[in-house]
Amino acid sequence: MDIYQIIKEPLSTEKTTVQKSSFNKVSFKVQKRANKVEIRRAVEAIFNVKVLNIRTINVKGKKRRVGRSIGKTSDWKKAIVTLRPGQNMDIFEGV
């Protein structure tokens, strides 16, 4: 699997910005089939940082209703990556 297909997008919410500033943790939306080893290799190769720990979460999609029709958003996988002390990612600066 290509490393650029494993990481879909970084997550930028209030909670993730607090985790970044306080605990040096960065969150990504990743491919559902990716495991922790593949996520670690992709993050280290793309962003040139060292990873200390990875936690993954399967997020269930929410039910949505528009008028009479009921639908559901897609399920997705979230990875919370803990960086080693002294490491940082420039993509999250100023967010």
Word description of this protein:
- This protein has helices at 3-6, 14-23, 36-47, and strands at 7-10, 25-30, 51-59, 63-66, 69-72, 76-83.
- It has a 4-stranded antiparallel β-sheet.
- The protein contains 3 helices and 6 strands.
- The protein has one domain (3-85): Alpha-Beta Plaits (2-Layer Sandwich), CATH 3.30.70.
- Helices cover 27% and strands 37% of the residues.
- With 95 residues, the chain is an alpha+beta fold.
Quick take:
With 95 residues, the protein is an alpha+beta fold. It is 27% helix and 37% strand.
Q: What share of the residues lie within helices?
A: 25-40%
CATH class type: Alpha Beta
CATH topology-level fold name:
Alpha-Beta Plaits
What letter string, H or E per element, gives the SSE order? HEHEHEEEE
| Low-confidence runs | none
Strand order of the largest sheet: 1-2-6-3
Oligomeric state of shown chains: single chain
Q: How far apart are the first and last residues' alpha carbons, in Å?
A: 30 Å
Instruction: State the major sheet.
Output: 4 strands, antiparallel
Average residue-wise pLDDT: 93
* Derived structural class: alpha+beta
Strand proportion, as a percent range, falls in 35-45%
List keywords for this structure.
95 residues; two-stranded antiparallel ribbon; single chain; Alpha-Beta Plaits; alpha+beta; globular; 3 helices
